[in-house]
Amino acid sequence: MAAARRDKPSLLTGLACGAAVVAAVTLLVYPLQDLDPGVSSGVLYVAGVLIVAIYWGLLPGIITSIASAVALDYFHTEPTGDLFRGKDGGDLFAISVMFFTAVLAAVIAARARLRARDAAERARLEGVQASRARVLAAADDERRRVVRDLHDGAQQRLVHTIITLKLAKRALARGEDAGRFVAEALQHAETTNTELRELAHGILPAVLTHHGLRAGIESLAARSPVPVAIDVVAGRMPPAIEATAYFFVAEALTNVAKHAHATRAHVSAEIRDGALRVSVRDNGAGGARRDGPGLLGLEDRLSALDGKLELTSPPGGGTRVTAVLPLLQ
Ligand SMILES: Nc1ncnc2c1ncn2[C@@H]1O[C@H](COP(=O)(O)OP(=O)(O)OP(=O)(O)O)[C@@H](O)[C@H]1O
Ligand SMILES: [Mg+2]
Fold it and tell me: In the structure, how many helices (H) and strands (E) does the chain have?
């Protein structure tokens, strides 16, 4: 609804538009008053009052209705050179109609604005709830993956280590050589250690937690099959911001390698207007869709920190994807 577009109409603009509407209607009806000196000019003023009341609210509508009544009174019959002198009492009726119309229109417009605001707020809350549900589902998936990895990897190797050590103990108790079992147990323990380190790396890489975003991005660029130029102008930030920015770059660079057919990529990070802006761009095929599982997941990650994702990816024109993350004080 048109009225709903202006959530907070400015009073000054409303008054200026009211004055413009009254002047325009007066200019329009004055030369035509010979055709119909009464009703049609009144209706045009009422239409003007309606427009002002709907678009700019009650007060400008009322003031416009009074101004319209004065203009109508002054111009719709032969000018007398003075207001309300030598005119018939029917103008009082015109004033009342316009006043009533203004109030009615303003009330309807206010209700419409309220309903539109409610609908927008409901839509926003539904979006936040859907996003939260996806973040929770992703966290559950991640937990399940960690449990599975622990169960299939480190836990199995530890079981082998324990069994082998028990064999070694039994051999020693019998006075036999336990060296073979001890060597095997050691190998299992070392492999377990490596697997646990890799698992932890998958959750949050040590280079990011120890050295910050720039180092994290450098490690991602080093693994990328497409050459990546880096331009990071940002020091240490809160861990949640660094981790989110890191996973954003990881997914964006994976997308470049998987989909873009690009010959080079560029990652930049800077702090501007109180927010970290991280961009990944490539010179590839373009045509990226923000409703894909990866980019949608990134959007959820970002919105959990009040951030947002921007995507420009015209077909054939390369892709630029940007994460904007407000830095909390
Ligand atoms: N840099 C890019 N260049 C060209 N196309 C891209 C680029 N990034 C994404 N796309 C396109 O947008 C789609 C959505 O990307 P998204 O990352 O959401 O999903 P995905 O990479 O296919 O799946 P996942 O991330 O789960 O592996 C991709 O399928 C791909 O077609
Ligand atoms: Mg992807």
Answer: 10, 5
What is the 257 CA–ligand 2 centroid distance (Å)? 10
Query: Which of 204, 231, 259 marks a domain boundary?
Result: 204
pLDDT in tens, 73-127: 676 555 444 445 545 566 567 667 766 776 777 778 778 878 988 999 999 888 8
Ligand 1 atom index nearest CA of 260: 3
Claim to verify: residue 213 and residue 197 sit in the same structural domain: no
CA of 28 to the centre of ligand 1 (A): 58
| DSSP letters for 101-144 | HHHHHHHHHHHHHHHHHHHHHHHHHHHHHHHHHHHHHHHHHHHH
At residue 56, the pLDDT reads 80
Domain boundary pick from 126, 153, 172: 126
Q: Are residues 43 and 118 in the same domain?
A: yes
Domain that residue 106 falls in: 2-126
Residues 19 and 60 in one domain: yes
User: Same domain, yes or no, for 175 and 211?
Assistant: no
pLDDT beneath 50, residues of the chain: 1-7, 79-83, 86
What is the sign, positive or negative, of the torsion defined by CA atoms of 221, 223, 226, 227?
positive
Structure confidence by residue, pLDDT tens digits, 223-232: 888 999 999 9
Ligand nearest to the CA of 295: 1
Check whether residue 216 and residue 322 sit in a common domain: yes
Nearest to 268 by CA among 232, 241, 244, 318: 232
Split into its structural domains, the chain has a count of 3
pTM: 0.58
- Choosing from 249, 259, 298 the residue with most ligand 1 atoms within 8 A of its CB, the one to mutate for a pocket test is 259
